[in-house]
Fold this sequence. Notes:
The longest helix has 25 residues, at 151-175. The chain is flat, with a radius of gyration of 29 Å. Strand 1 (6-9) and strand 2 (16-24) form a beta hairpin. The strands form 2 sheets. It has a 7-stranded mixed sheet with strand order 3-4-5-6-2-1-7. The mean pLDDT is 89. The protein contains 13 helices and 13 strands. By secondary structure, the chain is of the alpha/beta class. The structure holds guanosine-5'-diphosphate. Residues 223, 225-231, 244-246, 251, 273, 323-324, 326-327, 339-341 line the site of guanosine-5'-diphosphate. Guanosine-5'-diphosphate is lined by residues 223, 225-231, 244-246, 251, 273, 323-324, 326-327, 339-341.
Amino acid sequence: xxxxxxxxxxxxxxxxxxxxxxxxxxxxxxxxxxxxxxxxxxxxxxxxxxxxxxxxxxxxxxxxxxxxxxxxxxxxxxxxxxxxxxxxxxxxxxxxxxxxxxxxxxxxxxxxxxxxxxxxxxxxxxxxxxxxxxxxxxxxxxxxxxxxxxxxxxxxxxxxxxxxxxxxxxxxxxxxxxxxxxxxxxxxxxxxxxxxxxxxxxxxxxxxxxxxxxxxxxxxxxxxxxxxxxxxxxxxxxxxxxxxxxxxxxxxxxxxxxxxxxxxxxxxxxxxxxxxxxxxxxxxxxxxxxxxxxxxxxxxxxxxxxxxxxxxxxxxxxxxxxxxxxxxxxxxxxxxxxxxxxxxxxxxxxxxxxxxxxxxxxxxxxxxxxxxxxxxxxxxxxxxxxxxxxxxxxxxxxxxxxxxxxxxxxxxxxxxxxxxxxxxxxxxxxxxx
Length: 433
Ligand code: GDP
């Protein structure tokens, strides 16, 4: 199969120190004619950086040329890179020159798509790479990295191999059915299937953590008016986001801010204080506050000791915070005493938040991150369950279920993923990756 030469600017467009124009395809090395080597080599060695002049469309820049020889390149094809100065016009002009010499402008994610098609990485690794590139938190960089380094696909492949072994054992039963009428003895096979279910279950459970890492942990700050919720939000954020006033009922809508704890984003939402005698606008705020509270992962129940904390049916983990401890000696039941004024107790509160957020595993990246992977594993688990429930059924039916499980798992690595799935994944990439 002939791979045409695709070209793109691989660095972010804008002014910067350096920009890279990349060309990949069977004829990538031909584009060396755009380069005047400072010292002409007898032969271009792969993986070496050569200094010289790069020809752009109507100008020259001084920079570097690198050749990656197939299959030892990102895409698995012959690839060349021009490292030029990081001006938008410079990189664009060099790309235009390459296009005028016959290269085709690469589509979104086309380099990575070729890498996938050439077996350089699995589909889940490509997704991990996209997560890493788009990550807005350190935890997401780590989690994306774990996928990119094939941690999940290795686990999935192991499970697939175990399934293959079981399928082979089932095939024996089909080819040489037991002589006696009581039917085949599948007990050993069922035991092995149960063991695989046991490997999949914790992965499925870990998605709750992965989801929080992708979307952030939502923390609702609740409590009666004037207990110091807005002040606490500001203190945790380190800047003034919410209005602080001694007049009750000033926070009429949810005010949000983000902090990063343990590399994970926590979305803090200051809810409007809940009280009975509220005006019309404040009432709207109270309704929203209730909604935020009910869906929050963590609820900070702020109290100054004088008022009860109404949490309106919240299901998240609760942390009771005694506020204004610089003014009042804390009393009654509470988890942590804080002063937004002096900063006392804030460090302890951050530690509590991290614990209550359910993201302790964020550091090792050992959890499911993508809904697509979760769904595929769930389907595999369902097929295995169905296999075990077919007790007394034929080896043929067993084989169907086991094959279904194998195919569902293959969607994660890409082996059995449809063209459509593959296309949607690479559309998420930027041009040049
Ligand atoms: P909210 O209505 O629950 O959001 O409460 P605010 O944050 O608006 O604070 C209500 C009042 O309590 C304001 O006058 C604040 O200055 C005061 N306040 C809040 N936190 C503290 C604190 O840690 N120490 C002291 N001494 N006063 C505080």
